[in-house]
Amino acid sequence: MQWVKVLGGVVGAAALLGLGIIVGHFAIPKGADSPAPSASASQDLDREILKTVIEQLDANRIRENLRELSKEPHLATSPRDEVLVQLLLQRWQDPQSGLDSARTTEYEVLLSFPSEEQPNRVDVVNSTGAILFSCRHSEENLTGEQGGPNVVPPYAAYAPPGTPQGPLVYANQGSEEDFKELQNKGVKLQDSIVLTRYGGVGRGAKAVNAAKYGVIGVLVYTDPKDINDGKSLPNETFPHSWCLPPSGVERGSYFEYFGDPLTPYLPAMPSSFRLNSDNASGFPPIPIQPIGFKDAQVLLCQVNVSVHNRLELRNSSNVLGIIRGAVEPDRYVLYGNHRDSWVHGAVDPSTGTAVLLELSRVLGTLLKKGTWRPRRSIVFASWGAEEFGLIGSTEFTEEFFSKLQERAVAYINVDISVFANATLRVQGTPPIQSVVFSAAKQISAPGSSGLSIYDNWIRYYNRSSSVYGLVPSVGTLGAGSDYAPFIHFLGISSMDIAYTYDRSKTSARIYPTYHTAFDTFDYVNKFLDPGFTSHQAVARTAGSVLLRLSDSLFLPLNVSDYSETLRSFLQAAENLRVPLAQHNISLGPLVTAVEKFEGAATSFNQRIATLQEGTSDPLQVRMINDQLMLLERTFLNSQAFPEERYYSHVLWAPRTGSVATFPGLSNAYSQAENAGHKPAAWAEVQRQLSIVVAALEGAAATLRPVADL
């Protein structure tokens, strides 16, 4: 345990300076350590180690990982899901390539499944109730993989049971606007069943919107124009191309929130208080069932929908693999992806898990050889039950809320690692932009272009920055994967990394076989990434980002990159200046707050530059890094959005208003405009403006020298 002795000396010396490095929750049991190079408080990113990791990430190993992960369906809590739990534990406990420690955590969560005894049905019936046509109960078995006993039939998770019958009405995407338009045209919606297509609004929102207009049941299908660029014939679709075949049905969760439905804000432990499922909110109010586009084409007149879903408490596991930091073991860089899928889940999520396993193998091998140990701790995570509503990751953030807020540096999410093979796609908070750009510039893009991943990326997705000129576009984070609780609930700098499409060649809203029984290994191997070089590119990019965050002396997060976002939001808010003034609401405090942040960020970066030029004092480095780590937390306000569960980040909460400014301000303004001159509505606009101002002033204060109280 050589490195522990060295660390003890370093920590002891640093403690005299008030550094205060403490033992983290993810402690390594005695005897689990590997020899490592001598650690020192000035340990920084080793470029040779970084080069070694990038070179050793193997495309063929990723391919074989994916083959194993996706060979059988692995719905959350199924026997195959448990087999994969054990596979991850075995890999992370391997004596040659494992990590310091690995363990599972279980949560008892409420999931939703279709009844095996009473399959869900959609029938066309006549006035006497006689069945004239029935939709398929399962997808067509085109490759021998769609008909197995463990293939869950298409269903809408958390949809309530029921057998509504009524006339069928086409309602486009099921948005509020779609139903208003139908009502305005005199279409009778009361006691009807509506047919909607995926997209536009969330799955569950279609049922919520429909119920407001007296609709008693909802059908959802994937339209070939949205997913297949219009291709719909059997010889144009899978297995002849990557397009969704006519019988393909997208499964999914229709729960409105994320996390376990019965234990909001509490980890789903046996001792936790649970809501009664009859009183829990967020479930669809009326029965809903997905169907294929072939069946959607022939549905006419009277339709009967029979949904027999059931709710069950099940034990779902997260798997955690830990590499203990040599200098700052109480600072965590987290890297995660979910494990569960709706069927075989080759693309979603196993492309991400295949990359995770290869990256952890390479790092684990270096660790076991004693040639490397990160400065900060690395936590690899395989989340359970994500498909039902980000359950595993949310329960983890609830259980370790305080610890993660105090100690987590960043969260890297690699869910679907390869949507397609054209270019890198990154979503994240502004401070992560610089570390992703640095990584992407140093790695070659797949193919023969000779370009770096960065230069290839900028060809497909770019924006004009007032600071940097033309740069790749980094998207924002919604709630589509396990990064959601980390950014929205905990305020941890987060990102999602993948390879994706050339948008000039397809308008598909997502890869066509998403959440269907056709998402198989052969689909990936034949159509998405035949050489697995895009998988390798994601592994190299994510691995480089991970090492830069875990090993760099100064955290490679650039707080000034928030200034562009804030300035953009402020400019949009300026369009509201006149109508706000009519209600005695001034934007002056907001302008001042943005300027304060910009000034504080500039001064902060200057202090970092000064420290980097000299001999870095460990205490000063620690303080700077804590300011970088904690900046994102300053944008949290638990009272900002009381109607939204888990959303407390005042910059990235859902925006329903039409003005592209701070979401709370935009939403409140839109509601006030619709409400007319109601004082309470405009008071909420003032409240939201004050919340943003307070957050920005708090962020500026966080960046000022620690001694400046």
TrEMBL record:
The keyword Ubl conjugation does not apply. Coiled coil: none annotated. It is a single-pass type II membrane protein. InterPro entries: PA_dom_sf, PA_domain, Peptidase_M28, Peptidase_M28B, TFR-like_dimer_dom, TFR-like_dimer_dom_sf. One of its GO terms (molecular function) is carboxypeptidase activity. GO terms for cellular component: apical plasma membrane. Keywords: Aminopeptidase, Calcium, Cell membrane, Disulfide bond, Glycoprotein, Hydrolase, Membrane, Metal-binding, Metalloprotease, Protease, Signal-anchor, Transmembrane, Transmembrane helix, Zinc. It is found in: Apical cell membrane. SUPFAM superfamilies: PA domain (SSF52025), Transferrin receptor-like dimerisation domain (SSF47672), Zn-dependent exopeptidases (SSF53187). Gene3D superfamilies: 3.50.30.30, Transferrin receptor-like, dimerisation domain, Zn peptidases. Its cofactor is Zn(2+). Residues 585-704 form the Transferrin receptor-like dimerisation domain. Residues 165-251 form the PA domain. GO terms for biological process: proteolysis. The chain crosses the membrane at residues 7-28. The keyword Lipid metabolism does not apply. It comes from the Eukaryota. Residues 318-526 form the Peptidase M28 domain. Belongs to the peptidase M28 family. M28B subfamily. Homodimer. Aminopeptidase with broad substrate specificity. Has lower activity with substrates that have Asp or Glu in the P2' position, or Pro in the P3' position. Lacks activity with substrates that have both Pro in the P3' position and Asp or Glu in the P2' position. Lacks carboxypeptidase activity. Lacks dipeptidyl-peptidase IV type activity. This is Aminopeptidase NAALADL1. It comes from Capra hircus (Goat).
